[in-house]
Design a protein that fits this description.
The protein contains 12 helices and 9 strands. The protein is α/β, with parallel strands linked by helices. It has a domain of about 160 residues: 3-Layer(aba) Sandwich (Rossmann fold), CATH 3.40.50.1220. The strands form 2 sheets. Strands 3-2-1-7-8-9 form a 6-stranded parallel beta sheet, with helices on both faces. Strands 5-4-6 form a 3-stranded antiparallel beta sheet. Bound molecules: adenosine-5-diphosphoribose (APR). The site of adenosine-5-diphosphoribose has 24 residues, from strand 8.
Length: about 260
């Protein structure tokens, strides 16, 4: 199976990766669905919708600050690092991610499309103000502040720049993702249950255009039925073995 996946990747013309929470699980960031997932302990309607934010911004901000704290201490794991190396090797063209944890960037990938936003970015609920708390160096102070965050320009409430349930995805990212999916001949899907749309259409688009889908997951997902190769296991471990095989494959073809 892994040999087959390595061969497909080594022969790919335009490889993209589509990632979800499972790619960051080994970095200590909880996934959403299944045992121990965030949606087991929190209700989506209470913490991840525009209505929830209007009703109780304190509760929603407490949820996102809790996640910010976990994410800021997390480091990229082998799965992120392998994706970065595949990009450096000129094989992987882009990572399209549903994650908001910034770990693909930290690992070194340059071509990243974030479909669901970025937890470190905040934006005003009224004006155009936006701030990246990592870039501005204000993350630690932001996390310590007990009061609700207010816009420095118009004093309205700030919100996290993430996509909540019931909200449209950012247009530019969405267009970029599907343009890449249209061009791709192979999609490497890592650690997603593929239950949230339109993001999960990315691998289907590649498949519909005659491309191949390789999936890495600890268990079957919504994508498994269309996967040409399903690699069961933890992303960090599987991706590491996959990279070794891809390199071996490329070497053997050189001879
Ligand atoms: N390695 C590989 N896969 C893993 C690992 C691991 N170590 N741990 C968990 N997984 C898999 C699970 O089997 C599951 O299929 O990762 C997937 C995680 O699925 P979800 O929790 O549903 O996360 P995701 O698919 O990213 O969710 C999509 O839903 O709640 C929204 O906005 C949120 O972006 C998120 C979207």
């Amino acid at each position: 199976m892994i040999e087959e996946a390595a061969k497909i990747i080594a022969h790919s013309r335009f490889l993209i990766a589509f990632t979800g929470a499972g790619v960051s699980a080994e970095s200590g960031i909880p996934t959403f669905r299944g045992r121990g997932g965030l949606w087991e302990n929190y209700r989506i309607e209470e913490v991840a919708t525009p209505e929830a934010f209007r009703r109780d911004p304190n509760l929603v901000w407490a949820f996102y600050k809790m996640r910010m704290k976990i994410m800021k201490d997390a480091k990229p794991n082998n799965a992120h690092l392998v994706l970065a190396e595949l990009e450096k090797m000129g094989i992987l063209r882009a990572v399209i991610t549903q994650n908001i944890d910034n770990l693909h960037k930290e690992a070194g990938n340059q071509h990243i499309v974030e479909l669901h936003g970025d937890i470190y970015r905040v934006k005003c609920t009224r004006c155009d103000y936006m701030e990246d708390l990592l870039e501005s160096g204000k993350l630690e102070d932001f996390l310590k502040e007990k009061n609700l965050p207010k816009c420095p320009e118009c004093a309205s409430l700030l919100r996290p720049d993430v996509v909540w349930f019931g909200e449209p995805l950012p247009q530019e990212a969405l267009q970029k993702a599907f343009k890449l999916a249209e061009r791709a001949d192979v999609c490497l899907v890592v650690g997603t249950s593929a239950q949230v749309f339109p993001a999960a259409y990315v691998p289907y688009t590649v498949k519909d255009n005659g491309g191949s889908v390789i999936e890495v997951n600890t268990k079957e997902s919504g994508i498994t039925p269309i996967a040409d190769v399903f690699l069961r296991g933890k992303a960090g471990e599987v991706m590491q073995s996959l990279l070794v095989k891809v390199k071996r494959y490329l070497e053997s073809e050189k001879c």
